[in-house]
Amino acid sequence: MEQSSMRAVGWARSLPVSSGPKAARDWTREHLAALGWTRTAPDLVDSVLLTVSELVTNAHVHAHSPAQLILTWDEECLHVTVHDASPRLPEPRPPEEDAPGGRGLLLVSALADAWQTHRCPQGKDVIACFQPPRSATVA
To answer: Where does the record place the Histidine kinase/HSP90-like ATPase domain (predicted)?
Structure first.
């Protein structure tokens, strides 16, 4: 049997609606620091943190649900997954000029290398992938 050389590491945290996106950003920042990215790829860290904030906010505000935040690093891509209890998939929409919100998925689309959604038996997952520059992958 051939063994795969791929290694992966992951972290997960449940965030009740009362916790807010700051707790999600702080928790994510700690794990990105453990990967060495706060030092080697600070712009990427900012993009990941803004995406986490947007996705967790969407789970809390639109799904009225706790958010499960999962970070998975597979040595090529950081997968940021936010699960909530609503089966309704998000739909990017053009923001209204005077509206204070409505730009979250536009931001995610601009910041992440790719993003997608999946329905699950008890809600949905929104997944954003980030590929760091080669120089950032060596911690």
So the answer is: 23-129
Compute the Cα dihedral for 58, 49, 111, 96 and give only its sign: positive
What is the mean predicted confidence (pLDDT) over 54-67? 94
Say whether pLDDT at 15 is over 70: yes
8 A C-beta contact, residue 82 and residue 97: no
What is the four-CA torsion angle of 49, 52, 57, 58, rounded to 10 degrees? 140
Listed in order, strand segments (DSSP E) in the chain are 9-15, 67-73, 78-84, 114-120, 123-130
Q: What is the pLDDT of residue 90?
A: 87
* Contact present, 65 and 93 (Cβ < 8 Å): no
The reported pTM is 0.87
Residues in the chain: 139
Cross-strand bridge partners of residue 72? 10, 79
